[in-house]
Amino acid sequence: MGRIRLGVNMEFVRHHDKSFEWGVGKAAELGYELVEPMVHWGRELLSEAGYFHSVSMLDDPLRVRRACEKAGIGLSGLSAHTPLCKPEISVEYLKQAIRFAAECGAPVVNTDEGPKPDWTTEDEDHTLMRYTLGEAAKTAEPRGILIGIEPHQQYSKHPDGLDRIYRLVDSPAIGINFDTGNSYLCGHDPYHWLEHVADRLVHLHAKDISVEQSDGERGKVTGTPVGCACGEGVIDWGRVIEICRRCDRDIAISVECGTVDQAARSIDHLRSLLCDVPV
User: What are the pLDDT digits (tens) for 224-236?
Assistant: First the structure.
C-alpha cells in the first residue's frame, strides 16, 4: 500500500499578488509537505515583477529547487497544462516541462487534452494527441518523469474518454492525475472513477466543490480552476484517502483551492482524516 503525502497546488496564492518564492514559503508555513508549481513559456510581466506565482521555463530550474530547499518542502509535480490536441503548442511545451521537472526535482508533469481546434474531428484529435503524448513519453521515460493526464476537457470528461487518451501511447511514463472536483462536476461518481484508475494513478488534485457550485454547475461544465476548502464541500475525503491508500505507489494529494485561508483549512481537515485512517 502507498503512502499519502499532502501538497498544495500553487494556485492557492494566485489572487494574493505574491511571488513564487513567497507562495512556497507560505505552503511550508501551513504545514504542507509538497508544492505543485505552475510553469509557462516565455516571460510574463506579473510573475517577473513578483506578483504572480507561475515560473517561466526560461528560468533556471534550480530556482524552483532552491526555493523548496530553503522552505524545507518538496515537489509533487509541475502543473504544465497544455492542449494536447494542438501539437504546434503542446509538443515542445510538454517536452520542455519534462526536462524542467527532471532538473528541478518534480516527479510528475500534469496536463490534459485542452481545448480542441474548431475544425478537427474527434478521430483526428486523438491522432494529434497520440503524436503529442508519444513525443512527450520519449522525453519522459529516460528521465524517470511521469505524465499525469487529468480529466478536464471535452474528451476526458467521462471515464471512457480518459481511458482512450491514456491508451493512445503504451508507455510506463503515462499515468492519471485524477481531479476529484472536475470528475464530480462532469456529473460522475468521483469515487468509482478514482477506483477505476487507481492502478494508473500518479498524482491527485484534491479539489472540493461547494454546494452552491454543485447546484449551479454539475453536469454543465467539464471542470473548474480551483475549488473550496477541502471538507467544506461535497467531496468525501475519507473515502478518497481510503482509495489512495490501496495504491501500490505513494500518492501526492495536491490541494487545489483559491486562497491561503482555504489552504489552511484544507490541510487541517485532511490531516485529521489521515490520522483516523490506519496505515
Answer: 999 999 999 999 9
pLDDT, one tens digit per residue, over 163-175 is 999 999 999 999 9
Check the CA dihedral 7-12-16-20 and report its sign.
positive
- Residue 279 within any structural domain of the chain: no
Residue 14 covered by a domain: yes
Residue 180 CB neighbour total at 10 angstroms: 28
Sign of the CA dihedral running 146, 40, 207, 260: positive
- Give a yes or no: residue 277 inside a domain: no
What are the cell numbers at 200? 494508473
Interstrand relation of 201-206 and 174-179 (parallel, antiparallel or unpaired): parallel
Please state the domain count of the chain. 1
CATH code of 203's domain:
3.20.20.150
Percent of residues, the chain, with pLDDT higher than 90: 97
Range of the domain at 198: 4-267
pLDDT at 279: 42
CA torsion angle for 206, 211, 217, 222 (degrees, to 10)? 10
Q: Is residue 273 part of a domain?
A: no
